[in-house]
Amino acid sequence: MAAPTNLTTNIPDVIATPDQLAVAEYFASSAFDQSRRSRRDPTDGKFKRPTRQPWTLDLESENRLSIGVAFYGIGAAWLVLSIFVPYGVWMLVGFNGQAFPLWISIVQITFAPIMACLTFASVTISMWYVMIVKRFALAAAVILPGLMMLIFGLSRMSVFHVRDAAQMTLMPMFAYCIASVVISLPVQMWSGLSLSHAREVQKLYPRLGILAIMQLTLIASLVFAVNGVVGDGHISQEMVVAAIIGLVSTVATAVYVVNRSTEDSHGWFLATLVTIVFAFVAMLLVSLYAYVRYDETIVMFNSDQQWIVVVIATTSGTSIYFGFLRLGFIWLRACGWKCVSSSQKEQHG
After folding, report:
1. Three-state DSSP class for 33?
2. What single-letter DSSP state applies at residue 40?
3. How far apart are CA 52 and CA 38, in angstroms?
4. What is the CB neighbour count within 10 angstroms for residue 270?
């Protein structure tokens, strides 16, 4: 039997089966050569991933940079939004005879972004795996500058006196954040889930224990002491409403952040649906309380139409809330953060 003809100089003279000849012919073909060139090494700058990857800042090699960039971004967003809120409040209380649809729209546009940012900051900080004292110190560093800007803006817009603005803003903000912590910390304790920045060293994540409870008790004592000095020791109507809204909005934010930050986020559709429902309830409560608080500046009309307008405006506010929440999550993920379990080691980064 005659030996097979060489298909290419790269294929030696051997006795081969028809299948082997077919494989050798494919490897020598231009189709294989084109396929080989398209599968470049991942280190090649022209390499294109077959699947779409989330955008990141590649901070995994710097622990402190992952922390700093994440919270600088959150703090900057909170500070900028605090500058614009006084203008919205000024429009709500500074003009009489406003049409109800315009008024309720201003309410949603004013409070939806800052609520989303504050709740996102509170959930992120309170579910971070570090000690409670560090979380409290970080929360003060992130939130206080924007809070002072908010008080200053309300006083400069001639809406309230400085002392009145401080009393109406400081203690409700404390109540809002405490209510947020009441949700996020038990979730962290019972589920063992925490938020973690990008880390180089592989080690177990700590669980909350007796030391954490002692630190939390000390911080709660300090907060109530501040309430006794600044807020005259009584719980105001604004504090109760802020706490209720904080509870609802924290559920919306925590469900979304925890679910989307896990490596295999099963049930993302249900988590998104829960987030939207609770965000809608939170923004509806904001509308109702603002109506009770500043109803003298509104021109009323048919009550049935008012409820339709409230639902439409609240839906728009929910969309704004979810949009800012989504932006915050994208930023956190870009900085290398993720949701981890305290019973597992970090796998990489």
Report:
1. helix
2. -
3. 17
4. 11
